[in-house]
Give the backbone structure.
Amino acid sequence: MADNPEFYRARAEEERRNGDAASLDNVRDRCRRAEKAWDDMASRAERTQTLRAAREAASPVASAWRTLP
């Protein structure tokens, strides 16, 4: 699976909903921890995409490499 911030955000939202629906404190806490972990992964993936795009824009060789068939 590629780093996909949208996927990670969707998983965080799912955990948020699960936590809201949980009646047990330990389940709610687990869901909140999972939500935070998914949000952190989404943030890292977004940062990686931004840095990768900047690096490729700064390197004409890397940009040419990506366009080869």
Observations:
- Helices lie at 5-21, 25-58, 60-67.
- Residues 17 and 31 are 9 Å apart (CA to CA).
- The mean pLDDT is 89.
